[in-house]
Write a structure and sequence with these properties.
The protein contains six helices and 26 strands. It is of the alpha+beta class. It has a domain of 95 residues. The chain has a 22-stranded antiparallel sheet, with no helix packed on it. Strands 1-2 form a two-stranded antiparallel sheet. The C terminus is likely disordered.
Length: 411
C-alpha cells in the first residue's frame, strides 16, 4: 500500500469521526435555538496529517466512550433529554404542558406543611381575616353609626398641634379650634356662645332665652351691640376695658358712649365721663310731645344746659341751670329771655311788647313769687313808651310815659 492509499483511508476515518462528534452538537443547538433544522452540514476543514493522527483513538471502544461522555448534549428542555449511547428521547408534549387538575380544597389544606411566620398557609390567613372582621365589627358597634363620632376627641396636624377639640361637661358642649375659635352650647341654660380670639382682642357672640349680643373687646375698649349689660336695654354700647384694683381684683367696665333704649326710656345718644356719669344725652322728650332735646350735665351728673322745645313741642327753647335748677331761658315764642331764682320763679323777663302791635320791646321785673312790680316798654297805641311801678300788688300804680305828667302819687 503506497502513501497515497494510506492518506485516502485516513481521510475517510477522520470524516466519519467528525460526523459522529459534531452531529449531536448541531442537533442540540438547533433544538434549543430554532425549530428549523439546518439544510446542510458544512464540510470540515482540511486538517494537516499530523493533527488528524493525534485525534484518532487507538481502538473502537475508546471512540464509543468519547462519543457518549464528551459529545452528548446537556438537557435543553424538560421534555428532551439524552438517552443511552447519546440518542435523544422525548416525552409527550401535550401531557407536560396541560394545566394541573385542581385538587380538593380540604385535601390541599391538609397536605400543607406546618405554617410558619414567613409562609402562613391558607387556613391560617382565613383565620386571621375572620379575627380582623370581628374586631372591625366591634369598633363599629362601639362608635355607633358610621356617620357619628363620639366626643371627646381631637384633630391634630402633622406636627401634633391641636387643630380642633370637641369636649363637654355637665354644663356645656364645646368646640375649640386651636383657641382662635370656640363654640359653646350651655345645655342647662339655653344659652350659646361663639368666641373668636387673637393677640389683639376677641369677639364674643352670645344669645340666651332673653337677650342676644355681639361684644368686641380690645386692650382699651369694649364695644357691644344688641342687649345691654346684664340684659338691660338694647342698642350700641361702648365701654372701657376695665382694670385691676389695688387688691388685684378686676374692676368692672364703665360706660363711655351708647345709642340705646334703656329700661323705661326712649332711644337716646348718651356720652359718659371717666367716672361713668352721663354728661351728654340727646333724644326725644316725652314731656315736649316727643320733640328732640339735648341735655348737658356736669361731672356730678347734674343737668346744666338744655336745648329743646316748648311744652307743646313747637317752639325752640334754650336753658341753663345750676344744681339741677333753671337759672335762665331763651324762648323763641313768645320771644323772651327769662331769669329764674332758686325757687324756679321767673324774676326778670325781656320780651316782645304785649301792647298794641307787639313789635316793640318790654322788660319786666318781678318780686320773688313772680308778681310783676316794674314794667317798661313800647306802647304802640300812643307811639311811645311807658314805665310803671306797682306797689302793694297793684293797689298803687305809678306810671311814667307819653301823656303822663309824672309818677304822681298814684291814682
Amino acid at each position: 500500500m503506497n502513501e497515497n492509499t494510506v492518506f485516502l483511508h485516513l481521510s475517510v476515518v477522520v470524516l466519519a469521526i467528525s460526523l459522529l462528534v459534531f452531529a449531536p452538537v448541531a442537533l442540540s443547538t438547533d433544538i434549543g435555538s430554532s425549530p428549523a433544522a439546518p439544510s446542510s452540514i458544512p464540510a470540515p476543514p482540511n486538517p494537516e496529517k499530523e493533527d488528524i493522527l493525534k485525534s484518532v483513538p487507538s481502538a473502537p471502544d475508546e471512540l464509543k466512550a468519547k462519543e457518549v461522555t464528551d459529545n452528548a448534549p446537556a438537557p435543553i428542555d424538560p421534555i428532551i433529554s439524552p438517552g443511552q449511547q447519546g440518542a435523544l428521547k422525548t416525552s409527550p408534549i401535550t401531557n407536560s404542558l396541560a394545566p394541573p387538575v385542581p385538587p380538593d380544597k380540604e385535601a390541599a389544606l391538609a397536605s400543607v406543611a406546618e405554617p410558619n411566620a414567613v409562609h402562613p398557609n391558607v387556613a391560617q390567613l382565613e383565620k386571621r381575616i375572620a379575627v380582623l372582621e370581628d374586631e372591625v365589627q366591634a369598633l363599629l358597634a362601639k362608635q355607633g353609626k358610621p356617620s357619628q363620632v363620639k366626643a371627646p376627641f381631637e384633630v391634630v396636624d402633622s406636627d401634633g398641634r391641636v387643630m380642633l377639640r370637641v369636649s363637654n361637661d355637665a354644663k356645656a358642649d364645646m368646640l375649640d379650634m386651636g383657641g382662635g375659635l370656640v363654640l359653646m352650647n350651655y345645655t342647662t341654660e339655653q344659652r350659646g356662645r361663639v368666641i373668636v380670639s387673637s393677640s389683639g382682642g376677641r369677639a364674643v357672640m352670645e344669645a340666651d332665652a332673653k337677650s342676644a349680643s355681639i361684644v368686641v373687646e380690645s386692650a382699651k375698649y369694649t364695644t357691644r351691640m344688641g342687649s345691654g349689660p346684664n340684659g338691660e336695654g338694647n342698642g350700641f354700647f361702648v365701654r372701657d376695658a376695665g382694670g385691676v384694683a389695688a387688691n388685684g381684683s378686676a374692676t368692672p367696665t364703665k360706660p363711655l358712649a351708647e345709642i340705646a333704649a334703656l329700661a323705661g326710656k326712649k332711644v337716646a345718644l348718651r356720652l359718659y365721663d371717666d367716672a361713668g356719669n352721663a354728661v351728654v344725652s340727646a333724644g326725644t322728650n316725652p314731656a315736649a310731645a316727643g320733640a328732640g332735646t339735648v341735655k348737658v350735665a356736669n361731672t356730678k351728673g347734674e343737668p346744666v344746659a338744655f336745648l329743646g322745645t316748648s311744652e307743646n313741642g313747637e317752639s325752640g327753647a334754650l336753658g341753663v341751670a345750676k344744681n339741677g335748677k333753671n337759672t335762665a331761658a331763651l324762648l323763641s315764642e313768645p320771644r323772651m329771655m327769662v331769669l329764674y331764682n332758686d325757687a324756679g320763679e321767673a324774676i326778670t323777663t325781656l320780651a316782645k311788647s304785649q301792647e298794641g302791635t307787639g313789635e316793640g320791646g318790654n322788660i319786666t321785673i318781678r318780686q320773688p313769687d313772680g308778681e310783676g312790680i316794674f314794667s317798661a316798654g313800647y306802647n304802640a297805641d300812643l307811639g311811645g313808651g311807658d314805665a310803671c311801678v306797682y306797689r302793694a300788688k297793684k293797689q298803687n300804680v305809678f306810671c311814667l310815659g307819653i301823656g303822663v305828667p309824672g309818677m304822681g302819687t298814684g291814682r
